[in-house]
Specification:
The protein is of the alpha+beta class and 229 residues long. The chain has helices at residues 13-22, 50-59, 75-104, 114-119, 128-132, 152-166, 176-180, and strands spanning 2-10, 146-150, 188-195, 204-212. Strands 2-1-3-4 form a four-stranded mixed beta sheet. Strand 3 and strand 4 (204-212) form a beta hairpin. The N and C termini lie far apart (40 Å). 23% of the residues are buried.
């Protein structure tokens, strides 16, 4: 059984470097860049304020989130990009785990530690029962900790893919409106993905938290960038 927690936040090289710089457990990791994580392309609205995009959508008689400006990327195209990258990520995790087993044998792994709790401080937003459901009461062992840094509109489409296509389990206290909202800058979502016997076709996905921004409580409004596309 393979299990990988997936953390999502906004894709900026500086953001990813800052996260690793502050991390206590993996300072020497190399950041990998992938074009499939880029923000949705907004065509003629690229680089313009959100108010401009809303005005274009209103003129076209469409809702802003689903509106595609001239030369922009459709939601289906963004979702296909997200699907392609997610499948690649799962395949990579399985291959690396197999290489590790080949090198070191199938040594038993220890159960969750205090360090893991520090790595994932948002787990209190999901009940212990939800995290252990379907595991027969045994602790989940994390084989890979993967940090994915991307943009808000892209992540909203990826999460939509998780929920509608892969039947992602959501926290019981999550409101429906939260699924359609864009994450705040540096917002964090945490997912646990299980691949039974390396089966890439049927991942079991549990959302621990969505678009968390509790780490921004003490950040002044002047530090929050305005939304542009």
């Amino acid at each position: 059984m393979k299990k990988c927690p997936l953390l999502h936040c906004h894709f900026v090289a500086q953001t990813a470097a800052t996260i690793l710089g502050k991390n206590k457990f993996c300072k020497d990791l190399e950041i990998k860049y992938d074009a499939r994580l880029r923000e949705r392309k907004y065509g003629v609205a690229e680089g313009r304020p959100l108010t401009d995009l809303k005005a274009m959508a209103k003129t076209a008689g469409e809702q802003c989130p689903s509106f595609t400006p001239s030369g922009g990327e459709t939601l289906d195209e963004v979702r296909e990009r997200a699907r392609d990258f997610f499948e690649f990520l799962c395949q990579l995790a399985v291959e690396l785990e197999q290489k590790e087993q080949d090198m070191h044998g199938a040594a038993s792994r220890s159960s969750g530690t205090a360090e893991e709790e520090l790595v994932f401080p948002w787990t209190n937003h999901c009940s212990e029962a939800e995290l252990s459901s379907g595991s027969g009461g045994t602790s989940k062992i994390l084989d890979a900790n993967i940090l994915v840094v991307s943009h808000g509109a892209y992540m909203r489409n990826w999460i939509g893919y998780f929920v509608s296509d892969l039947n992602c389990t959501l926290p019981t206290n999550l409101k429906k409106s939260q699924l359609s909202s864009v994450s705040p800058n540096t917002g964090v979502s945490h997912f646990i993905i299980k691949l039974e016997n390396g089966n890439l076709l049927k991942p079991e996905i549990t959302c621990v938290c969505l678009n968390q921004d509790s780490h921004l409580v003490d950040v002044g409004a002047e530090c929050v960038a305005p939304k542009v596309f």
